[in-house]
Amino acid sequence: MNKPTAEDYLRTEESNGLRHEYVDGEIYAMAGAGEAHNLIALNVAAGLRNLVRGGPCRVFIADMKLRVAEWNAFYYPDVMVVCNPADNHTHYKEQPGTVIEVMSPTTESIDRREKLLAYRTLPSLQEYVLIAQDRRHMEVYRKDANGILQHEVLAAGQPLWLETVSVSLTQDAVYEDVKLVPNLPKNALDIA
Q1: Could you tell me the pTM of the whole model?
Q2: Is residue 4 part of a domain?
Q3: Is 64 within a domain?
Q4: What is the total count of domains within the chain?
Q5: Is residue 121 part of a domain?
Q6: By the 8 A CB rule, do 77 and 66 touch?
Q7: What tens digit of pLDDT does each residue of 106-140 get?
């Protein structure tokens, strides 16, 4: 059986209303996100949208695909910022300056490994941000002058600075209205 092509994927994705990610001929269903995940992504997107409004940059959330050509892949980042007006595909973007993923227990390993490796191949990418949903914790992978991603873990209370758009978001703004519930080990509920 032949694997679906990127064109097959895009055609199906636009017509069926469900979300799937595509990686080199393999299609993966997207699970729904919980309240904390949604609130964090919304807080970040709304905050960024307010700060970049009227300029050349656009903020996209969850339903906009990101095409990573070198990986023959399409992902759904939680938030991305695109500042190049030539990146004008209506159902996906290819040139984000910033990509932000909110890590859940089921996506954290993919966000840290697969997506980090894929996103770093994007010439336009300046920052890749990982935000925990179970505690106040943010990490930034930022390109240095040589184009190498440098890793930074933000200290408690340190604002999230995004060089792509020269704005920052406070941790209070990112986590506004979010009830932080630590992820329990899989067998924690079995303890009597």
Answers
A1: 0.86
A2: no
A3: yes
A4: 1
A5: yes
A6: yes
A7: 889 999 999 999 999 999 999 999 999 999 999 99
